[in-house]
């Protein structure tokens, strides 16, 4: 599907912009739903054209979503909360006073004392977790990174490069929850 066909396709769509590289940015069109994030099309624009393309797509009804090249997550925030998707399904949905996790567990906003961006000591397990007022910690949005598994040369530098998404998602969840945020990565 061409970029214009993706923009004109029926249904709710989101625009996602990639990082600038060599003076260009990729602008992608996604649908986000229970079946995950599905890319419909993309185009490359110069950095100078980017703001105009984003504004045009916004005028045409495409909300802005975010991603990071080093993860499989697409997320968007709105006045009611934040939703996070991978390519297969919605993994987190905070709307109103409750959040639904990937395993369909429901957490109330007022039960969240702190949202933490974290990585395990071996750097494999990383993401966002909540410290509940009860003292229990629960995972919210996480991944197990195969890049860190079994690689004795994998270092903190690679970890920092690959986990830029975790503090962004954790901070957005903390904003929704009205709780503290801590970046432990």
Give a topology summary.
Blueprint: H1 3-8, E1 14-17, E2 24-33, E3 36-46, H2 47-59, E4 63-67, E5 74-78, E6 81-85, E7 90-95, E8 98-101, E9 106-108, E10 112-119, E11 125-132, E12 137-144, H3 156-162, H4 165-177, E13 180-183
Parallel strand pairs: 1-4, 10-13
Antiparallel strand pairs: 1-2, 2-3, 4-5, 5-6, 6-7, 7-8, 8-9, 10-11, 11-12
Which properties best describe this structure?
single chain; 185 residues; alpha+beta; nine-stranded mixed sheet; 13 strands; 4 helices; 21% helix; four-stranded mixed sheet
Mean pLDDT: 94
- SS content category: alpha+beta
Share of helix, binned = 10-25%
Distance between the termini: 39 Å
Number of helices: 4
Radius of gyration: 17 Å
For the largest beta-sheet, the strand count, sense and barrel status come to:
9 strands, mixed
Q: Low-confidence spans: pLDDT under 50, at least 5 residues?
A: none
Give, in order, the helices and strands: HEEEHEEEEEEEEEHHE
Kindly describe this structure.
It is a single chain. This protein is 21% helix and 44% strand. The chain is an alpha+beta fold. The strands form two sheets. It has a nine-stranded mixed beta sheet with strand order 3-2-1-4-5-6-7-8-9. Strands 12-11-10-13 form a four-stranded mixed beta sheet, with helices on one face. The longest helix has 13 residues, at 47-59.
Concise description?
With 185 residues, this protein is of the alpha+beta class.
